[in-house]
Design goal:
It is a single chain. This protein has about 130 residues and is mainly α. The protein has one domain. About 85% of the residues lie in helices and about 0% in strands. It is rod-shaped.
């Protein structure tokens, strides 16, 4: 806006709006990736667990005399994929929420500063 001082107020406002929209786009452009990661990471973890359990059951069906300890040990390892997916999903969601909140705060500050600047320009000179 300062670079446009001397031009009509409408032109200054429009220029500031355009610059603001560009800055908002720059801040938000990678947020959808984080949102997708937060949504699908747990699903990949569960898919890994299911595939692992299917393979586990197949292997134990072929075994001559599997014990419950063997099954429990193998299931423990398979459940790690679910836990990993959930942890990644939760951390991604927390990061997404935090960044989204920070962007909203920044946008509010930009809008407030823009309005204050326009008000100053519209004040009568002394």
């Amino acid at each position: 806006g300062i670079q446009r001082i001397g031009k009509p107020i409408d032109a200054i406002e429009k220029s500031m709006d355009n610059v603001g929209k560009l800055e908002i786009y720059k801040m938000e452009r990678n947020l959808p990736v984080l949102s997708v990661i937060a949504r699908i990471a747990p699903l990949f973890g569960f898919v890994g667990t299911i595939i692992g359990l299917v393979m586990l059951l197949r292997d134990f069906a072929a075994a001559a005399n599997p014990s419950i300890n063997d099954i429990a040990d193998a299931m423990y390892v398979k459940m790690i994929t679910s836990a990993t997916g959930l942890i990644i999903g939760i951390l991604s969601f927390l990061g997404y929420s935090y960044l989204n909140t920070q962007i909203d705060k920044t946008v509010n500050k930009m809008e407030s500063a823009s309005a204050d600047f326009i008000d100053i320009l519209q004040e009568p000179t002394r």
